[in-house]
Each structure stands twice: as structure tokens, then as C-alpha cells.
Amino acid sequence: MTVSRAERRAATRRALLAEGRRQFAADGYHHVVLAEVARAAGVTKGAAYHHFDSKAGLFRAVVSEVQQELGERVATAAEGHVDLWEQFRAGCRAFLSAGTDPAVRQILLLDAPTVLGWDEWRAMDEAASARHLADALTALASAGIIADQPVEPLTRLLSGAMNEAALWIAQGGNAEAAEQALDRLMTGLRPTT
What we know:
This protein is mostly helical.
């Protein structure tokens, strides 16, 4: 069977992403050398530069991939429930528990904000997960499950709190205590009767 040029390019890109992700998660961005990623992936340094232009380009692609997977993990956890409130809680908990994943911890929480810069990291986070949080909050407010309020500032507050809690968990904080605190915080969103 003949492998097409496009299939070889796609395979090379996948190999570089997988190896880059492995090394960035294990060693941190600043200790990774693009030539070593290429060698470990079984491709030339030129192929790595062709696909990603630089180590930062590879890192950006890995961050995007990890964010996408995290978003899928959160969505899957939420979809396991019918009740909107339980969907919201499950998705938020799945996000928090991701802080124990080495790739999420090192790549997304520790390195991405400093390597990419705060503005780019926030824009990527917004595209990957914050918009889902805004959608969930909008649905909850529309259903009367949480108090009617402006969703954008609430999204930013919760996103910031959860990112900070996930980072705290990643650095050895108690995941169960963070989940309990998040539950108390979220319960405060519900209308008082």
C-alpha cells in the first residue's frame, strides 16, 4: 500500500505533536529543545521547522490540543447528566480534576501563560473553554436555576477562580477541598427563596 505525501505529512505532524506534548509535560517548555523533539519523533529538525516554524509554534499547537481535549473531557462529564445544574457541577468538577493531569498542569497551567503571554493564553482559553462556561451559565439563568445576572462578568469570575483552583491542585492542593469550595461558591449563584 502506497502512503500519499499528505498522509506522510499528517503522520509527521502527529508524531511531533505527541513527542512535543510528552516532553513539554515532563520537562517544561524551557527545558525542551526542538531538535531533540524531532529526533525522538523520528523526523528531521527541518521537518519540525517546516510544520511548526519554532519551538514556540510547536508549543502553541500542543497547548491548543490539550485545551481541546480538556474541553471535551468537561463536556463529556457534563453530558453524563440530564439536569442542567448537575451538568454544570460535573463540568466544573471535571475541569478542576484536570489539575492532577501532568500535561494540563505543566503545559496549560504553568507554562502557557508565561510562554505565550497572558493575552494569547486568555484568548486561547476563551476559545477553548470559557465560551462553554458562558453558554452553561446562560442556560442556567434562562431556566431560572441561577439568579438572572450579566453572564460575562460571572463567566470571567468563575473561570478565574477555577483556573486558580486547578493550579493550586496542580501544585499539591487538596482536590476534594477545592471541589467542596467550588460547590459552595456555585450554590451561591442560585436564587434565594
